[in-house]
Amino acid sequence: MSENSLDNEEFDAIVFGTGLVESIVASHLAAADKKVLHVDRNPFYGGSSACFSLSAFIEWTIEHRDQRQTPLVEIYMGDMSAQPPPTFTLGHANEQLLASASTSAKHPGTAGTINADNIFDRLLSNCSQAPQLDMRSSLVSQLVALLKDDRSYSIELAPKVAHCRGELVDLIIDKGIAEYLQFKGVEHNYLIRNGVAERVPGSKEDVFASDSLSLIEKRKLMKLMTSITDDESHALLLDGCPEEMTFARFLESKFRLNAKLLDSVLYAVARAESKDELTARSGCERVRKYAKSIGRFGRMAYLCAMYGGGSEIAQSFCRLCAVAGGTYILSEEVRSIEKSWRDGADNGYCVQLAHGKVFAKHIILDPCYSPDSEPTTTAISRAMCILDYPVFGDDTTAILSYVDETEGAVVAMLYTTRATLAAPSGQSIVYAWKTGHLADTRSLLLRALTAARGTLARPLFTALFEVRDLRSSASGLSGLYHTAPPDATVDFDDTVDQARQLLSALL
Amino acid sequence: MDRETIPEIASTFKILLVGDSNVGKSSILLRFTDDHFLPPEDASATIGKDLQREKKSRGRLSRGVMMKPVYSTVHLLLCGVSRHVGVDFKVKMYDLDGKRYKLTIWDTAGQERFRTLTSSYYRGAQGVILVYDVCNRESFEHLNNWIDELNTYCSSDDVVKMVIGNKIDKEQERQVSRKEGAECARKHQTLFLECSAKTRIGVQQAVEELVNKIVDTPSLWRKAAQTKGTVSIDDSVTSGIPGGCAC
């Protein structure tokens, strides 16, 4: 048997895509003594939560993104606060270009030296509207400056942080893979209102120490924290609350919070996506969880993985799976996934890979791997912006919530720096994301980024794109399970839940 | 291990093994850490499933050896297909100049078979051992690819590299001369040694040389200092600033 062929091998399960959900599922299957093959068509791990150097991120926008899922990427070089047209708009790749590109397809980042001219040419030949000729030399020099520190950037497709008392942290400890990972605390939580970023006090000590709160505000916050976190008074509070009462209404009626405090609790602590999203009960649960998380590893509620969250964590689960005997292939062409029948009986699935034909009882797949997958109307719009200055501190990580006065909307944000080896020293990366299509959220996201950077920092490189949910008509076939891309929440708990649900069906 | 009997650990080094399948990475690891060798006919068609993660008390990471091969001959026969010895990483204490260093030596977990090591595997490594089989020319020629990958993913350019030609006990089957190996090492500016995990020749010496070089490379230490302030989420560690309510 050749080492490098899989021909006719039979597996208990084949997992397609190395995103976090798929990786958690694969590792659990292997640990349960199942024979697992884990395949990714890309040359990198992480799927839709992958993490890249800057050049590899640009390569992703051109080469690796699923065009059904992300039909468009907009790149702004330099200032975008006045909302100019994007410098590069990367739409559907030209078939011809793709063909010529794939012959020279390289592992992102393996090219020994990064050539800014090459990358610029790639952007140029793949964008729908090329920048003006007289702009080009200045754009190239901007790229050269950025790519000088190429590998100091860790750019995440779906930035997330881990709740200190969340399911993911418990799972990592339980599986003994803490040794594979390094985390830093997310030290700050900011609320941006009326163009001003203010720290949200996380603990009672913070409330005491805060100089942005009046005495009355402090007292109100204290009362709220005590009564929601205390089991007895918490139950009492909710007693008699109508089931449909919103958390915002609850906070107003029970604690008489002013607008600023209400926004802090609702958006920065409970992380509501909109004013009416949470019921009183679910809102209280989130506040309780937040409060309990503080103090477990320090004074922060969240942890951020070094070198880029979801991808690093997914890779840890992949390694765990490999240690338990799972087989890994990346850059693998998936030719077909078909139901297999033997003597009229269901024989699982037959999968044609570049490395041979393989069989499996179960298929777990990221819907990107189904040729018939089509985008649904659900999407998350995401923005990433490299700043030339660490606005919230050079050696820190922060989560932010931006309240937009114009639309009354809220945007979730994450700020990373060299603290997690995400940006070169002296720079920072700000992410913003919002449920909805890019057409509807573009200006909101750009306003959020502009408000976050304040007056001190200049944007160097900004990318906007949307990630649509895909649905395959094959879903519902026995033994075949689809996964969903990372959601809009700031933490990984829903991801772990999804993996658990899949596993309960599989094991 | 009793805390009292252990001198303070001066530093922890992460050392990686890379190289093609079946060159003997796991054997070198087992030989160095446990002075143990799996018979070749078993090692080449090894296990995977038969290995069990050492039972850990919930919420604690056991220190020391992470994996224990528990293998059954019956299952080996059934397996047929080459499966990897599921060694994760092993920990070994190493004393030098009155100081004690903790070495965590990481194996590829079989992810090298289709050249799909995770980029996170390389993170934070201070030393890398590139292994080839002196009886397998291809494994030697592939060293270039491994060095490329290494240079792409290792967080520090100063990471200490060492090329090791394994299986010199099979002298009559040799396809790569010692001179060629040494030349390759010189070209890539790495340390070089030949060894046999089977007869234990050279194994101890290889790791010693590598560690000495790491200790002599101050920039690797500075790099380690940069990752200060990381949170250990191992529950047994409860250091850090106590937060929450104290009132």
From TrEMBL, chain A:
Q: Which domain of life is it from?
A: Eukaryota
Recorded protein name is: Rab proteins geranylgeranyltransferase component
GO molecular function, a single term: GDP-dissociation inhibitor activity
The family line of this record is: Belongs to the Rab GDI family.
Q: Which Gene3D superfamilies match?
A: FAD/NAD(P)-binding domain, Guanine Nucleotide Dissociation Inhibitor, domain 1, Guanine Nucleotide Dissociation Inhibitor, domain 2
GO CC terms for this protein?
A: cytosol; nucleus; Rab-protein geranylgeranyltransferase complex
Q: Which GO terms describe its biological process?
A: small GTPase-mediated signal transduction; vesicle-mediated transport
Coiled-coil residue spans: none
Question: What PANTHER family does the database record attribute to this sequence?
Answer: CHM, RAB ESCORT PROTEIN 1, RAB GDP-DISSOCIATION INHIBITOR
TrEMBL record, chain B:
Gene3D superfamilies with a match to the protein in the record: P-loop containing nucleotide triphosphate hydrolases
Keyword annotations of the record: GTP-binding, Nucleotide-binding
Domain of life, per UniProt, equals Eukaryota
InterPro entries per UniProt: P-loop_NTPase, Rab, Small_GTP-bd, Small_GTPase
User: Is Protease among the key words of this record?
Assistant: no
Task: Provide the coiled-coil residue spans.
Answer: none
Q: Which GO terms describe its molecular function?
A: GTP binding; GTPase activity
Q: Which PANTHER family match?
A: RAS-RELATED PROTEIN RAB
What protein name does the entry list? Answer: Ras-related protein Rab-18
- The source organism is Coemansia thaxteri
